[in-house]
């Protein structure tokens, strides 16, 4: 993708898209001293000693503008105020209504004094407040002109709220990277075909397309590549027309695992051809079609404003074909690449921690990502491994909602220990 690949979309269409512009405060936030409670705007000094009786000289509700001179708070006075309303001039705090009583009976007493014709409404304040309490001063959240959301930020509901609050009904976003998905395998058939006795349906293309969409890309599902080099090569070449190519299957050590071989014929450069994880160990990452070799040292030539540049050809991932391996390796490796291609500022993977319900025994040497069920809430969160038949078991994965991450050196993890979880 080139940095110029941007488009303007309606704000809500921008959900999940990556901002190609910064969002700036168009005014102070809040734009006035904003009451944070329902109650009375007062001078803190007047309620230093409580109970204190103040004369109620007006009321401001949200949306009202207390014109100084018409509605302000003088010594011994208070103005009724509602949450979200501007603080009248003269006031320096808000007393919560819960700490006051509107003193009808006090008014009655005063009314009985014959020399008073106009009966002032009185409020009794039972609790002191300090100056500055219960209102948010103008500009305390943000000053006019301040950057509220960075370019490169993916819009979520909070980002949408920010854009809405500064009046951006349209936002400039990066174009979605197009991500080609090629499934490989002689046994794999399209999902609307009737599978033969030894065939399986192509679930990986669909799970990957869903993951691509979730990551902010546009999935382009290509035909299934048989375990035969010529057709596989043609599909790889087609896929390299997209911004990123994802292949599944055919990257293990089997006699018909041809993906690396065919990529090699296309002068691919491989950055890794295996990772010490399970599931997903045979995952392959590289680039193809580069005139000059890619530098992965973060040198400026390797990056553009949208994160990853094209001069080095197209990046590809060969993901293992076992469905759970495909899903895990996508999250760990392909998702960050798609986010970078989408112009997003890099984000760390999100891990949670929870207490393990039952002991786990495993072999050392690989970092493991085991499907598991997280339940309970807050400090009672607990996690239990899903029963599964290995990395082909999508039924188990569908019952799970996360992966327990087991460090490579651990052979046994006791019940009650805190473990890291990768959410999905
Ligand atoms: P492979 O990585 O090609 O050795 O495949 C590993 C396992 O994943 C085999 O059992 C394949 O049948 C299965 N598999 C490969 N591709 C797909 C696919 N597109 N959808 C579902 N399962 C697949
Ligand atoms: Mg295969």
State the main characteristics.
4 domains, about 425 residues, binds magnesium ion, six-stranded mixed β-sheet, Molybdopterin biosynthesis moeA protein, domain 3, alpha/beta, elongated, Molybdopterin biosynthesis moea protein, domain 2, Molybdenum Cofactor Biosythetic Enzyme, Chain A, binds adenosine monophosphate
Compile the SSE list and pairings.
Layout: E1 6-10, E2 23-24, E3 34-35, E4 39-42, E5 52-60, E6 77-81, E7 93-96, E8 100-102, H1 104-111, E9 121-125, E10 135-136, E11 147-149, H2 157-165, E12 170-174, E13 178-183, E14 188-189, E15 200-201, H3 203-214, E16 218-221, H4 229-239, E17 244-248, H5 259-265, E18 269-272, E19 277-278, E20 284-288, E21 314-319, H6 323-341, E22 351-356, E23 360-361, E24 367-375, E25 382-385, H7 394-399, E26 402-406, E27 412-413, E28 418-423
Parallel strand pairs: 5-6, 13-16, 13-17, 14-15, 17-21, 19-24, 22-25
Antiparallel strand pairs: 1-12, 2-11, 3-10, 4-6, 4-7, 5-9, 8-9, 18-20, 20-21, 22-28, 23-27, 24-25, 24-26, 26-28
Bound molecules: adenosine monophosphate and magnesium ion (MG).
Number of domains: 4
CATH level-two architecture of the largest domain: 3-Layer(aba) Sandwich
The name of the CATH topology of the largest domain is Molybdenum Cofactor Biosythetic Enzyme, Chain A
Strand content bin: 25-35%
Percentage of helical residues? 10-25%
CATH C-level name of the largest domain: Alpha Beta
Radius of gyration: 32 Å
Count of beta strands: 28
Low-confidence stretches: 292-311
Query: Main sheet: which strands, in order across?
Result: 7-4-6-5-9-8
Instruction: Specify the number of helices.
Output: 7
Small molecules in complex: adenosine monophosphate, magnesium ion
């Amino acid at each position: 993708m080139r940095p110029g690949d941007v488009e303007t979309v309606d704000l809500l269409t921008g959900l999940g898209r990556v901002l190609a512009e910064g969002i700036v405060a168009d005014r102070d936030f809040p734009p006035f001293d904003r009451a944070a409670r329902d109650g009375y705007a007062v001078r803190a000094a007047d309620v230093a000693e409580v109970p204190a009786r103040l004369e109620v000289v007006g009321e401001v509700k949200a949306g009202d503008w207390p014109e100084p001179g018409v509605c302000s708070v003088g010594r011994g006075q208070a103005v009724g105020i509602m949450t979200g309303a501007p603080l009248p001039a003269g006031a320096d705090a808000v007393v919560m209504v819960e700490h006051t009583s509107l003193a009808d009976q006090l008014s009655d007493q005063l009314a009985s004094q014959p020399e008073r014709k106009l009966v002032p409404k009185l409020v009794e304040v039972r609790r002191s407040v300090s100056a500055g309490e219960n209102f948010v001063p103008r500009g305390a959240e943000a000053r006019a002109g301040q950057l509220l959301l960075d370019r490169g930020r993916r819009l979520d509901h909070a980002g949408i709220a920010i854009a809405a609050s500064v009046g951006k009904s349209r936002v400039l976003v990066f174009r979605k990277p197009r991500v080609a998905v090629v499934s490989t395998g002689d046994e794999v058939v399209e999902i609307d075909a009737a599978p033969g006795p030894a065939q399986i349906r192509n679930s990986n293309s669909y799970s990957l397309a869903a993951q691509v969409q979730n990551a902010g890309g546009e999935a382009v599902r290509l035909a299934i590549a048989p375990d035969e080099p010529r057709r596989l090569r043609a599909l790889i070449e087609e896929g390299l027309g997209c911004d990123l190519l994802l292949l599944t299957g055919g990257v293990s050590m089997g006699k018909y695992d041809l993906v690396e071989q065919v990529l090699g014929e296309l002068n691919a450069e491989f950055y890794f051809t295996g990772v010490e994880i399970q599931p997903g160990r045979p995952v392959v990452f590289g680039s193809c079609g580069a005139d000059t070799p890619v530098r992965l040292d973060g040198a400026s030539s390797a990056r553009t404003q949208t994160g990853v540049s094209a001069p080095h050809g197209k990046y590809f991932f060969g993901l293992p074909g076992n469905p759970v391996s495909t899903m895990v390796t996508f999250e760990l490796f392909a998702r960050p690449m798609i986010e970078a291609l989408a112009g997003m500022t890099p984000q760390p993977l999100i891990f949670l921690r929870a207490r393990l319900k039952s002991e786990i025994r495993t072999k050392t040497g690989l970092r493991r990502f085991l499907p598991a069920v997280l339940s309970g809430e807050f400090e009672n969160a607990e996690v239990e491994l899903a029963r599964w038949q290995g990395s082909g078991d999508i039924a188990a994965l569908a019952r799970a909602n996360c992966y327990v991450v087991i460090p490579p050196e651990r052979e046994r993890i006791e019940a009650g220990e805190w473990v890291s979880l990768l959410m999905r």
